[in-house]
Design a protein that fits this description.
By secondary structure, this protein is an alpha+beta fold. It is about 55% helix and about 10% strand.
Length: about 575
């Protein structure tokens, strides 16, 4: 095991921890108490933030998988662990937003586990105040404060990975440790296949333990058995999950995985998310500078300091996950909470090697907290209210679930039609050149559309859209605005004494909204009458020129209040 010498640690503790207090039986310095207070304050603010900040569109998508599984409609094999971990969440009353908020609380708890492991790992290489500062640095990165507890795969996958790092660095590699490692890796891969991004780090840490071992051949075999056990467990999880999938599950998972890898890893060039990296650096300025300082100090120690070379190599390996930013196309703000837990150990190391005093650490802590408070304030806007208002209106309009189009499965308890409209999903859709929306409308009854995507908004407005022309026209010609960003199937037509023909793609009951009676397919239809229309061509005629609306449903209700202005979703 690589540790700082006892003399060095004692010297540092005399310099930085000269006034110990007892808290719950643990002796802490005033600085350590201050750092713990800062961490606790940020964690408390972060927990409160989950109840007031907007919900990101992929969090709704994450929840929709759980509903699909419970309704026997899920056909996805990979990255579906959450349907078992959070299957109970759909029983919580209050609808999708309440359920996601509850899920966020458990992600917050998972993040606390990650913080504890970060501290334990860091404490192997530096005195406790600097290890606590590494923890504070993690929370002080703006993207992590905002997205580290989102209802996504990232927080629980991060816990699995940092546990694996902990096993390699801190544990004695006994059988129970390796069993835990196998479980963590298998579960992490079942949660998200992107844990492969940590392969270089884990390989480097395994190699270090082999070099340190007095019996490397034995340890190599034990590592091999751990990998095999993890692979078997992962395969068993996938196989068991596959037995629950809906009929018609696609058999081309390998091809799908290959397509995903090509899109996510190879399509963006060098530093595909450079703008996000710049913003991440600015919103986490102090931790970012100290991570860079730790990286420089580790490189210098490897090159020039034989006494600290082994320690510095381990610290340097913690920077390996940073290489993913050079090629990974999905390195959006939420990615930081997944990829940075090992990396922030460099921040504590940088502060340690720079010999930052108690005053400096305290001052930096205050600046980090001030930055977090500022970020907290900027996250409070009306978008969450728009989301809540929209979902409440949908459930009142449609007490029973109906199929709908939207960006991401926002009405998670309803069956979504169409595609998941992420940048990656739209790219594959354009590549396939198949009019998915039109095909769905021809084969399903989809009476509801939520205008929560730029591509949908452009199509409905007759502007240039990412959607194929056939799909854009199908949406524009078959849906009408109902309330806020909620659109329903319908037709708005200009009539006169000449017969007007129109086509219906979405069958069902339609209510006539007009100034005067009309003749539909030769039959008199009075104002407010409801008529059932099948797919196909129909004819309308009016005795007087007028604008009429055929609206899907029997007098679909609208909320009495005016819809809030503003989009449903914004930037991360």
């Amino acid at each position: 095991m690589v540790n700082i010498s006892a003399h060095s640690l004692k010297t540092e503790r005399r310099n930085i921890s000269d006034a110990p207090y007892s808290v719950l039986g643990i002796k802490l310095s005033a600085l350590e108490i201050g750092l713990c207070f800062s961490i606790t304050l940020i964690l408390s603010l972060q927990l409160y933030l989950q109840f007031i900040q907007k919900i990101n569109w992929d969090e709704f998508f994450y929840l929709s998988h759980i509903y699909e599984a419970q309704n026997g409609q899920l056909d996805k094999t990979l990255q579906m662990a959450h349907i078992y971990l959070f299957g109970w969440i759909t029983k919580i009353p209050g609808g999708e937003m309440v359920q996601i908020t509850v899920g966020r609380f458990f992600m917050w708890a998972a993040q606390i586990g990650t913080l504890i492991l970060i501290f334990k790992i860091a404490a192997k290489f530096m005195p406790r105040p600097y290890a606590l500062f590494a923890v504070l640095s993690f929370l002080g990165i703006g993207f992590i404060y905002v997205h580290g507890t989102s209802f996504r795969a990232d927080p629980i996958a991060a816990l699995c990975i940092i546990y694996a790092v902990y096993v390699f660095i801190v544990s004695d590699l006994k059988s129970r440790d390796l069993a835990g490692l196998a479980i963590a890796l298998a579960l992490g891969a079942f949660i998200t296949i992107k844990i492969i991004l940590f392969a270089p780090l884990l390989a480097a840490l395994a190699l270090r333990r082999l070099i340190m071992s007095s019996r490397p051949s034995v340890l190599f075999i034990r590592f091999g058995l751990t990998v095999i056990a993890s692979a078997i467990l992962f395969a068993a999880l996938l196989w068991g999950h596959s037995l629950t999938l809906a009929a018609g599950e696609t058999a081309d998972n390998a091809a799908s995985l290959s397509s995903t890898a090509e899109t996510v890893f190879l399509s963006g060039g060098l530093f595909p998310r450079l703008a996000v990296i710049k913003t991440g650096f600015i919103t986490g300025l102090i931790p970012s500078i100290l991570i860079f300082s730790g990286l420089v100090m580790a490189i210098l120690s490897v090159a020039a300091d034989k006494q600290k070379r082994k320690e510095a190599l381990v610290i340097l390996s913690m920077a390996l996950p940073l290489l993913t930013f050079t090629f990974y196309s999905n390195a959006y703000p939420y990615f930081y909470a997944f990829i940075l837990p090992p990396v922030v150990i460099l921040a504590g190391y940088g502060a340690f090697r720079l010999k930052l005093s108690s005053f400096m650490l305290a001052a930096l802590s205050v600046l980090i907290m001030a930055n977090i408070v500022f970020l907290h304030i900027t996250r409070i806007d009306d978008m969450r209210r728009v989301q809540a208002q929209t979902l409440s209106a949908v459930h009142k309009m449609f007490p029973e679930p109906v199929s709908y189009f939207d960006r991401n499965g926002m009405v998670a308890s309803f069956p979504k039609a169409g595609l998941f409209m992420s940048s990656w999903g739209l790219r594959n859709y354009r590549r396939a050149a198949q009019p998915i929306f039109l095909n769905e409308m021809q084969n399903k009854t989809v009476p509801l559309l939520i205008d929560n995507s730029p591509a949908i908004s452009a199509a409905l407005g007759g502007e240039t859209s990412t959607l194929l022309p056939e799909d854009a026209a199908a949406l524009r010609e078959n849906y009408i605005p109902h309330w806020g960003q909620i659109w329903v199937a319908g037709k708005q037509l200009s009539l006169d004494i000449e017969t007007t023909e129109f086509s219906i793609l979405i069958p069902g009951e339609y209510t006539l909204e007009s100034a005067d009676n009309v003749w539909l397919n030769g039959d008199l239809l009075k104002i407010g009458n409801v008529i059932t229309l099948e797919r196909g061509v129909h004819s309308l005629r009016s005795a007087v020129p007028q604008e009429i609306t055929l609206r899907w449903g029997t007098a679909l209700p609208r909320p009495p209040q005016k819809a809030l202005s503003g989009p449903i979703f914004g930037a991360f």
